Amino acid sequence: MNNIQVRIADWQKDNADLRRIREAVFIAEQAVPPEQEWDADDVEAVHFLALEDGYAIGTARLLADGQIGRVAVLRDWRGMNVGDALMQAVIAEAERRGLREQKLTAQVHATRFYERLGFEIVSEEFLEAGIPHVDMLRKSH
After folding, report:
1. Residues 78-108: tens digit of each pLDDT
2. Is 120 within a domain?
3. Does the keyword Acyltransferase apply (predicted)?
4. Minimal CA–CA distance to 46: which of 97, 88, 105, 81?
């Protein structure tokens, strides 16, 4: 568990790992339709990979407007702070790029996780791909 690294990924070079994780979590586990999972933003986004001993186990992406999304950790690695490591890397990169506000759409069950990282709920609950979500916002100081 202590061998977790997070790095910025290359959408082309790391595509197989990024797709493998997102397909396992969002499409297989959560039944998100593939046409909703893959979008034009992927080409422009900054992607992140969490790796344990070189094996990709988690992913996230950051858009130019500060929107964070597609945060996913493979089931066997959940509860091991992989999500924390991923999010800290994404927030640090957002701040490095001068993005003073980071936004995300969180599944309702994950809101406490994001609140610990400084995000606040800024919307009513709504359904996305059949899953309850809320919008959340974090402001850098």
Report:
1. 999 999 999 999 999 999 999 999 999 999 9
2. no
3. yes
4. 97
